[in-house]
């Protein structure tokens, strides 16, 4: 920061005065002036020190600013490097994942191939055992084949051994079916004979049970007839009672209607209820009787009071 001109001239004047005073004899200077000059000299020194510190601070600030700019540049470079390194890590991780996936797939493929090889080896061993079994069977059946060839030579209606074997198999199947049918028919015959014996043994008991059953049914029929007559008489009695109740209900409704009409005539108003509304008519009659009873009670209470007066 630049020093103001007034302050600059004051400092220059102070320097000159201090130089002149130093050149003169100090003994001729008054003590107050000497102290003032000392204070000014201290102010000048302090101002110079501050100016030097300010210049140093400005220099340090400029260097710090430059250093900060360098640090920001390095930070941007580090950020770019970090981004590139992160991308490199992601690419490396992707390559590693692909490699692991390929390795896992290859291991699975190798496992499947190994399992397939084991299965084929076991199948081959099974086929070899089957081949050995068939070879032994062939050796064992070779005399039979020669015998069939000789039989075929004696039977001109058959051209090949399979035809002869098929004919023999058909006959064997027919014989087995006939034997099975024979056994079934024999079993059915034995079952029919057993049923016949049971029927011969039990028909007397069955006849007795049926007679007892007929007697029980006749008794139940007689009891049912008696119950029917009883309930018919009960039904007739109920119908007669219902007719009486219906007649009584009609008389009651007619009496209620007459009372309601008398009440309406006494109150000098037309009937407001339906003829079939018996409950409403009885309610109106009840209200009229209650009002009339209250009125009579009031009159009875008023008579003693009049006599007493």
TrEMBL record:
<keyword id="KW-0969">Cilium</keyword>
<feature type="domain" description="DUF4200">
    <location>
        <begin position="36"/>
        <end position="153"/>
    </location>
</feature>
<protein>
    <submittedName>
        <fullName>Cilia and flagella associated protein 73</fullName>
    </submittedName>
</protein>
<keyword id="KW-0175">Coiled coil</keyword>
<dbReference type="InterPro" id="IPR025252">
    <property type="entry name" value="DUF4200"/>
</dbReference>
<keyword id="KW-0966">Cell projection</keyword>
<dbReference type="Pfam" id="PF13863">
    <property type="entry name" value="DUF4200"/>
</dbReference>
<feature type="coiled-coil region">
    <location>
        <begin position="179"/>
        <end position="227"/>
    </location>
</feature>
<dbReference type="GO" id="GO:0005856">
    <property type="term" value="C:cytoskeleton"/>
</dbReference>
<dbReference type="InterPro" id="IPR051147">
    <property type="entry name" value="CFAP_domain-containing"/>
</dbReference>
<feature type="coiled-coil region">
    <location>
        <begin position="89"/>
        <end position="140"/>
    </location>
</feature>
